[in-house]
Amino acid sequence: MRVVILASGSEGNATVFVSRTTQLLVDAGVGPRVLAGMLKAIGLEPRLDAIVITHAHADHVGHAAKLARKCRAPLFASEETSRELGPLSSSIARRTFGPRERFGVGELELRPLPIPHDAAQVSLRISDGSASCGLATDLGEVTAELEEHVAGVDLLLLESNHDEKMLAEGPYAPFLKERIAGAKGHLSNAQAHALLRRLGPRTKTVALLHLSRTNNRPELAREAAEDALRGRGVALHVAPPRGPLVLDAAPREVARGRLDLFD
Ligand SMILES: [Zn+2]
Ligand SMILES: [Zn+2]
User: Fold this and answer.
1) Domain ranges within the chain, ordered by starting residue
2) Pairwise CA distance, residues 220 & 191, whole Å
3) CA 235 / ligand 2 centre spacing (Å)
4) Residues in CB range of 93: below 8 A, 6 or more apart
5) Which of 105, 155, 209, 212 is an S-S bond match for 50, by CB 3.0 to 4.6 Å?
């Protein structure tokens, strides 16, 4: 499975999960033209089998209706998020899932898990039968359940939103600082560090997502994650606000097998 991060951060989030036969978009923070341009640039067909929305904030759902119409792709959201989205054109096929209900799109299996945010939000574990990815952004804290949910994934996409000191000393209004740092806000570099330290040995690639432009710097997020992952042989990436950033989620055994061929 390949993972293509098209956009990440408060200006828009969009990630495509690509298996042999299936192309699934999670979050619709870019429009149809940007999506098609980026997919073509990396040699993929500009098509989608489905769109999954993690939660109803504008940076995740902004272009959902337009993309669903243009790509003729069904729009999946949890029951609560679907209610928050409100009415959509009848030409869009809507599907809902329970907050912990497994569902399938083509050959991909998705497992949602509710995570704490100031909107109904889910983490997703996505598998194509051989490789698996975990996606967790827009969460105020890491729960024990989430840790279990992403345990053993080949590729982890994890929020590393802000540096706690930069947020505290930054220009945001006090209520906004409280919201972001709160239990239903966003994950700090230090919180991401704590989760990454406890990551099992199977995970071989980590990407940091949803970095704040105002309250973080890519090098700070990277330093914290590198410290947590030191000596573990994990490839670390920091998603830029605009991609595409292409990642490979092949299982570790396969990757090693490939290397062995050339040793
Ligand atoms: Zn967001
Ligand atoms: Zn959000």
Assistant:
1) 2-262
2) 13
3) 26
4) 68, 74, 75
5) 105
CA–centroid distance, residue 112 to ligand 2 (Å)? 16
What pLDDT tens digit does each residue of the chain (263 aa) get? 999 999 999 999 999 999 999 999 999 999 999 999 999 999 999 999 999 999 999 999 999 999 999 999 999 999 999 999 999 999 999 999 999 999 999 999 999 999 999 999 999 999 999 999 999 999 999 999 999 999 999 999 999 999 999 999 999 999 999 999 999 999 999 999 999 999 999 999 999 999 999 999 999 999 999 999 999 999 999 999 999 999 999 865 554 444 444 43
Q: From ligand 1's centre to the CA of 146, what distance in Å?
A: 18
Taking residue 173's Cβ as centre, other Cβ atoms within 10 Å add up to 8
CA–CA separation, 88 vs 81, rounded Å? 13
CATH classification of 2-262 is 3.60.15.10, yes or no? yes
Locate the DSSP E strands across the chain: 2-7, 14-18, 23-26, 50-53, 75-78, 94-97, 103-105, 108-115, 121-127, 132-136, 155-159, 205-209, 235-238, 242-248
Tell how far the Cα of 184 is from the centroid of ligand 2, in angstroms.
9
CA dist., res. 85 & res. 24, Å (int): 20
